[in-house]
Design a protein that fits this description.
41% of the residues lie in helices and 14% in strands. It is an alpha/beta fold. Strand 7, helix 6 and strand 8 form a beta-alpha-beta unit.
């Protein structure tokens, strides 16, 4: 056991390492690593009223990965500001923007055991309002880029076609509640995965400024849908490389795979999967492997910028 003071000190040291590494690599928008979290739902649930937790209520998620879903037993609200400490700590270490990271209401709902004495959508709206307060907390603390993850939105889609439209309507509305009071200068990101080509218009209706997707897992089918004419209108982070892969692509491969599908003016470069656990899961994800992969990503972004600048110059000559 360690004291709270020792815990904060240890996490601060790790956040500093993460921030300095990203600055060294010349990354534009930084993350703090979320090293303080045990689970993206459990962590936030512990800071909300209306949630209860088990000690040994483990549920298998996939493979050997298990989680302890919280129990939503009552009305949900946010009693005190959340996540502000870690985000502002990271932001104080750099002049570059640092993302504030939050879990979306639909994901919290779908990855919890939910009370059955009221409709699920009402509970989801309560969670959304609590997260809306969190967004305001982060803005007041000077965080201007906020990511609201909705990893489980597609996972909650009913099997019956007749019920899907109703679910998508309140799920999308819940997400929009979370940032409806955000400033015009605040950039809202979201992150999603799964096969959601058939619900692409609902994804668009979420109205996030930037969406990052686990595209390499879906054989780039989602980007193909967008490329074929769906008007997305927001920034896209297509995750063209799975960080757990044995093969690290070259900068040229990354540029080629991405630009053949998307307009370059809406493109964000980001890797697939979480980096904070990589060094524990795969030999290619040691610190040096992650650093090499990120260096190649930066090279790809620089290569694309150079190509665009050259093309623009030729256009006006």
């Amino acid at each position: 056991m360690i004291s709270e003071e020792e815990f904060v000190k240890a996490i601060k040291e790790e956040i500093n390492k993460v921030v300095k590494l990203q600055e060294e690599l010349d990354i534009d928008v930084l993350v703090h690593g979320e090293l303080e979290k045990n689970d993206m739902v459990d962590y936030f649930g512990e800071q909300l009223s209306g949630f209860a937790f088990t000690i040994n209520g483990w549920v298998q998620s996939y493979g050997s990965h298990c989680v302890k879903p919280p129990i939503i037993y009552g009305d949900v609200s946010r009693p005190t500001p959340m996540t502000v400490l870690w985000s502002t700590m990271a932001q104080s270490m750099t002049a570059r923007p640092v993302k504030g990271m939050l879990t979306g209401p639909v994901t919290i709902l779908n990855w919890s055991f939910v009370r059955n004495d009221q409709p699920r959508l009402e509970t989801c709206y309560q969670i959304a309002l609590a997260i809306k307060d969190k967004v305001g907390d982060l803005e007041k603390a000077g965080i201007n880029v906020i990511q609201i993850d909705e990893a489980a939105l597609r996972g909650g889609l009913p099997l019956r076609k007749s019920e899907q439209s109703f679910y998508l309507n309140w799920a999308v509305h819940s997400f929009r509640i979370t940032n409806c009071g955000a400033k015009d200068t605040t950039q809202i990101h979201t992150h999603m995965y799964s096969h959601f080509n058939e619900i692409i218009h609902s994804i668009i209706d979420m109205d996030a400024d930037v969406i990052t997707i686990e595209n390499s897992f879906s054989d780039e089918k989602l980007l193909s849908v967008i490329h074929k004419g769906v008007e997305f209108g927001t920034g896209i982070g297509p995750s063209v490389y799975d960080i757990n892969s044995l093969i690290i692509p070259s900068a040229e491969e990354i540029v080629d795979r991405t630009t053949k599908m998307l307009a370059t003016n809406i493109l964000w470069f980001n890797p697939e999967f979480v980096l904070k656990t990589c060094k524990h899961t795969h030999k290619t994800c040691k610190h040096t492997g992650v650093k090499l992969a990120l260096k190649i990503f930066i090279s790809a972004a620089e290569l694309l910028c150079t190509e665009l600048a050259h093309a623009k110059k030729e256009k006006y000559e």
